Amino acid sequence: EVFHLPGPTLVKKLIFCLMFLSATCFGQHDTLYVDGRFIYSAAGEKIILRGFNEMFVWSDDKTGERLLPEIAQSGANSVRLVWSHEYGHKNELVSLIENTIEHKMIAMPECHDATGKWDADLQACINFWNDPVLIAGIEKNRQWTMLNIANEAGNHDISDEMFLEMYKPAIVSLREWGYTVPIVIDATSWGQNLDQLVRTAEELLNHDPLKNVVFSAHSYWTRETTIEKYSKVVDASQQKAVVLIVGEGPSITRVGECGNPIPLAYKKGMHILHEGQSGWLNWSWGGRKNGDCDEFEYFDMTVNGEFGNWQTIPGGDVVATDRYSVMQTSQRPASFYHDGVVRVSGIYILASKDAIHVGETISVEVLIAPVNAKNRAFELSHDDQQGLVTFDPSSGLLTARAAGTVRFTATSEDGSLSWQKSIHISP
Fold it and tell me: To bridge 424 with a disulfide, which of 88, 131, 355, 386 should be the other Cys (CB 3.0-4.6 Å)?
């Protein structure tokens, strides 16, 4: 009797199955994973990404010791970690990933060196991940990490065929090197070619042995098309059953329109993506100041990366003050916590105005993040001993009676978090 040995293709599949036994063969997970148009935790919790980008690799805080606690106050559940194979050390990137996770936020490291570029530059970013330090570090933290191959690779001349020819082998290589985490692929045209991403997403997803790919567009679209594009992110994700996110945005401005004081439709974008349960991470937190669009500084959410110190009014909208901001919509999965109890990470006092006149009435509200934190109880007090205001805690309405300054203090029930806000009253 003659026994035939399995061919090399079958052997390769068997080895792969053994390498990724739980995820591939038995349907169990120890990473974030995609199923249809949503991302899930290893415990099966649906996660809608809400967070920020930060240029850690070019900052004086490469491992996030200072900036991550500030970002965490927003209740963000994810941070896109800007990195470069030309700067920084791989051990620093692993530490940054671990610090992000320590603050209960999903880490999404990315390689920024292929922005608008292709061929050798994109391949250099792909090869960057073929490193034992990164493979070991990311897989050790695979439960809460996603790998963004390259930032905005490719200009306006990249065809669908070229896109597939680069990213199909990249996916295979990453899996063969040992990565089991979700792979994130940016759109071409500096991240803006959403249509191409939609056309190729299913083929790329099906090319991944783990079927664990996320597709990311960056929302620097024209004013005429921006609202349509946000809707398309949601609609195409539903129709194609793939995960589409806005990896940079909703954008307040775009290069080429830096001198326009009228922002892009970022509020409408946040609204559309929230209603459509689509993820987004805004560019950028502000710990490392942007060099683009300095006229109105719309690319920086905060001053020096400090939570509550908004660079602009739109920056404050994106982080906390708008109904569809990160602070008012972000949820963190309970399995992030050892006991399954989501903790409060941030508290903020939101007043409809900071400066008012005698006789004027405003609202004062306390925001607690993330929105699904278990214990959202707080104490709100003020230092008015002179009868400058009347304040109704049940409605949150404050009416000014005399000129002066009143300071409010909000404190979480366990006393670990507090925020102060001063209201200035003019005659």
Answer: 355
Locus of tokens 């963000």: 76
pLDDT value, residue 28: 83
User: Which residues is 184 bridged to in the sheet?
Assistant: 148, 214
pLDDT one-digit tens code per residue, 61-96? 999 999 999 999 999 999 999 999 998 899 999 999
For the chain, how big is the Rg over CA atoms in Å? 23
Under DSSP, the state recorded for 115 is: B
d(CA 189, CA 225): 15
What is the residue whose two structure tokens read 């070991």? 136
Structure tokens at 312: 């602009």
- Segments of 231-283 assigned E as strands: 243-248, 280-282
User: Using CB atoms within 10 A of its CB, is residue 391 exposed (0-12), middle (13-18) or buried (19+)?
Assistant: middle
Tokens standing for 353?
A: 């105005």
The DSSP string of 326-393 is: HHHH----GGGSTTS-PPP-EEEEEES-SEEETT-EEEEEEEEESTT-S---EEEEE---S--EEEET
Q: Is 76 helix (H, G, I), strand (E, B) or coil?
A: coil
Rounded to whole angstroms, the Cα distance separating 131 from 147 reads 13
> How far, in Å, CA of 189 to CA of 34, rounded?
25
Token pair 């602070």 in the structure block, residue: 327
What are the distances in angstroms from CA 315 to CA 252, 310, 377? 8, 6, 27
CA distance 229 to 195: 9
Q: How many DSSP H helices and E strands does the chain contain?
A: 11, 19
Render 288-337 in DSSP notation, one character per residue.
Answer: S--SS-TTTTTT-SBSTT-TT-BSSHHHHIIIIISTTSHHHH----GGGS
Apex 83 CA angle, 77 and 89, nearest 5: 115
Task: Give residue-wise pLDDT tens across range 203-251.
Answer: 999 999 999 999 999 999 999 999 999 999 999 999 999 999 999 999 9
